[in-house]
Amino acid sequence: MTFHEISFPSDIAYGATGGPEYLTTVVSMASGHEQRNANWSAARGKWNVASGLKHQAQLNTLIAFFRARKGRAFGFRFKDWTDYRATAQPIGVGDGANITFQLVKTYTSGAGNETRTITKPVLGTVKPYLAGVLQPSGWSINTATGVLTFTVAPAHGVAVTVDFDFDVPVRFDTDSMAVTIEQIDLHQWSDIPIIEIRV
Predict the structure, then answer these.
(1) Whole-model pTM over 0.70
(2) Pairwise CA distance, residues 2 & 62, whole Å
């Protein structure tokens, strides 16, 4: 995957519209009953960042960012301000041998849940705990994959939990830059879709 480990401008992301999206096929019967088929086991994020543009300087920054990513060609990191943090997140249980653990975030509501693989943790925000005790050292985090590695394997039965902030791997979902000139030094880019990249 062609990916640039660079963050989309956070001030523009702050005003983005969007969130998780699913693909469900719904077949309606003549009786009024319906059959629903969930085609995706996990959500895929989709946003329009045009609503985050507030002034010309931001548009200038976005145009440069778009050109550097060559439209849809290169992925990048995006902060979804509605969902960017995990606290006391369980990621595994020690067995005395395994030293690597993949960051995840689990969403639970009633009997339903979904576990999301986190591949883009934010540097400096990761805090691992063993049996509830913060580990200030003895570990490293790969911010490009979300893999947490301990120097010494956690003991058998020890719960591994983590606090962290994370970005979403995304790409532009357009190769066209449709900018409208409103007046001198005032332009508008009305539709700027970005979509999550499945890893």
Answers:
(1) yes
(2) 20
